[in-house]
Specification:
alpha/beta, globular, binds phosphoenolpyruvate, TIM Barrel
Length: 258
């Protein structure tokens, strides 16, 4: 077993109004003690973040994440949210490069790279999402796609900075579809990404970087997936909208390390 601390994150996407987020957290937070064997992260919408922060930030085991961030510091960027704004509400993590940002909002590796660097410069931990479409997988391009996403999104990020980067491998065909990658497919991709980190950086970075799996993770498959050598947690969408099911996934992580 590795000594990487599992990290389990909820990506609420454009769900949970502030009132719904409050109700979720009132149910979820008391389920876990102040100190847990895993890092738990919640990424509400921007609008729910100040309220969520009031409940989350005092906790030692649960941290607040944004779902996106502008690479710019401030200025005439209508509709954008800056690092300083996120910092002020107690944000620790920022999800970047999610496949929905890539496919629906036209984000490419260059933009994601600028955001990763801005997040690191502001003391956040980016959760960098990568993953292939079904067409790319079936066309034999899995490794090529993952390599160019890793190298493009992490350009000019140093080995020292990688201590503060989490990677989420999310096969696009498994996101929100109910279809989960098989344990073999997930482990194979994670091992490949770890190999890329070794090639791009060094053995220490490859051994220390946490790589989450994302794509229809749920209570029914979490224990099997997190038991795999190179899977260090989850980025969870749909199953993280209900406190009980997200708690069950977190518990699978705790059970794995205890
Ligand atoms: C996600 O949005 O990152 C995700 C993995 O969603 P889901 O769990 O619903 O597939």
């Amino acid at each position: 077993m590795s000594n990487r601390k599992p990290i389990i994150a909820a990506n609420w996407k454009m769900n949970q109004t502030p009132t719904e987020a409050k109700a979720f957290l009132e149910d979820f937070l008391p389920r876990f003690p102040e100190e847990t064997a895993v890092d738990i992260v919640i990424a509400p919408s921007f609008l729910s973040m100040p309220m969520a922060a009031a409940q989350i930030v005092p906790s030692k085991s649960v941290a607040l994440s944004a779902q996106n961030m502008s690479p710019e510091a401030s200025g005439a960027f209508t509709g954008e949210v800056s690092a300083a704004m996120l910092k002020e509400v107690g944000t620790s993590y920022v999800i970047l490069g999610h496949s929905e940002r890539r496919s629906l909002f036209g984000e490419d590796d260059a933009i994601i790279n600028a955001k990763v660097k801005a997040a690191l410069a502001n003391g956040f931990t980016p959760i960098l999402c990568i993953g292939e479409t079904l067409e790319e997988r079936e066309g034999g391009k899995l490794e090529e796609v993952l390599k160019s996403q890793i190298q493009g999104s992490l350009a000019d990020v140093s080995a020292e900075q990688m201590v503060n980067v989490v990677i989420a491998y999310e096969p696009v065909w498994a996101i929100g579809t109910g279809v989960t990658a098989s344990p073999e497919q997930a482990q194979e991709a994670h091992a490949f990404v770890r190999g890329l980190l070794k090639e791009t950086y060094n053995d220490d970075v490859a051994a220390a970087t946490r790589i989450q799996y994302g794509g229809s993770a749920k209570p029914e498959n979490a224990a099997e997936l997190i038991a795999l050598e190179d899977i260090d947690g989850f980025l969870v969408g749909g199953a993280a909208l209900v406190s009980e099911s997200f708690a069950a996934i977190v518990q699978a992580g705790i059970d794995q390390v205890s």
